[in-house]
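Here we describe the complex-level prediction in full. Unlike the single-chain runs in Section 2.1, the two entities below were treated as one system.
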Amino acid sequence: MSFKIASSPHQHNQRSTAHIMRLVALACLPGIAVQAVLFGYGVLIQLVLAIVTAWLSEALILKLRGKPVFARLKDNSALLTAVLLAIAIPPYAPWWIIVIGTAFAIIMVKQLYGGLGNNLFNPAMAAYVLLLVSFPLQMTQWLPPLSLQSVDLTPLDAVCSIFTHYSCSGFSLPQLQANIDGITMATPLDTLRTDLARGLTLDESLNRPVFFAFAGTGWLWLNLAYLAGGLLLIQQKIISWRIPLAVIASLFVLSAIATLAAPDTIAGPLFHLFSGGTMLAAFFIATDPVSASTTNKGRLVYGALIGLLVFLIRNFGGYPDAYAFAVLLANMAVPLIDYYTRPRTYGHRPRSELK
Amino acid sequence: MSQFKELTLQGLWKNNPGLVQLLGLCPLLAVTATVTNALGLGAATLLVLLGSNIAVSLVRNHVASEIRIPVFVLIIASLVTVVQLLMNAYTYDLYLSLGIFIPLIVTNCAIIGRAEAFASKNPVLPSAIDAIMMGLGFMLVLLVLGAMREVLGQGTLFDGADLLLGDWAKALRVEVFHADSHFLLAMLPPGAFLGMGLLIALKNVIDNKLKQQKTVEKGSIARARITGAAQ
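The structure predicted for the assembly as a whole is:
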């Protein structure tokens, strides 16, 4: 009789990679639905484009590498990368943005490192950074929520403006960004940043129409939807609670302290938690099992590091939102974090007792 | 003649300073944003390499081996100064756009590497041929990388070639495609690293293909395994 020698994890449950990836993608659905209803249907077209590109590039590179194409495609990991990238970029960005981004994520960031499980960086976020650095204009043209737009956008308009840069009735994106008063509106984080740079105080800025209650109009619901999806994933034990909790807690604590210290220039913790990509990043992106830390203590450190970086970049850095940069920087720190947080092996003494 | 052929093959392909020895990566990655810059720096490096190899080969028997490295560096530095002044005089705009990377040719390991590894052990003629071939190999890599990055980044080729070659070269400028928004990453340093990695990968793929063909042509002898259990 022979014993199979395998590396950890030794405990198995019945879930396959494909099943997990599918569940994560499904848990994004509430967020996608909210985004489609409140911000227009552009996100759905981006999703289709992203998924098709991801499958094509994955198939191409698997073929080149001489791996079984169909079996690997079925693990849904390319699908999930495509979904995450498509919901992270501005929904009305031109079609080639998402095509370049997804192809880069799959070919360069994932497959060139050796495919699923070997990539150092989160593919969706690396692609997001590529796009943000390469095409800063297109990647910051977020339309305001539908309720604030001066022009009514139909689903057909979404198709037109993604593929031709103009809506079917001939409006360009900067025109669509303007509200009824003709003032261009950006995302809440961007607006706040610009206002603060112009010398307005926090309270003066928060009176603008893009803000609602303690966060941005529409963005609050979007973040709540991702929060719901994320909690479902934790309940299903697909992701561990440690990373999301650490991200949220560190961002919360830091911005609470900072807003007490500088109430006129730094927004409060609730604004930070429910603006931009906080919930999406905390539950869906930072928890990527490949590029995140794998030890329990390490996950807390990793999440807290992301929260810290996001806080720093949002308030003192060059970009309004910073999850992509924060996640990539934390990815780089993962080998170190994992090294110093290795759990004690059963039967071995803790390192402090070894003299 | 066979030595000449061997030197050519070594410099251009088998032992290419850019793709195989990975020497002089700093200028290679920094100035290849356009073909013109790549051509300018490639030519400057080639000139310096040729001069230094000849000079080092000439003095190789008169320099004590303990102080050979400082002597080589002095030779190279004086040649770089000459090239720098020449470019300052004749191709002023390119001189400005290459900036610090012209004086930095002194620190290009490809040059001191050839002086130490080849020119200090060989007569003048082979050293000169080696310099030309190594310089050409380096320049070719610069040009390919520059072309990749320029096409991706701006959609043009030979943009600003007149800075290097004179006014007639304005006709060389090719607009491959026109885009309103440039692919900035290709122009930025990460684009250089990605492009370089892809070039090295491409070379390895070609080498592997060639090797496979060779083994097929030779024909492998089938051997029956007689010891140990074949699993």
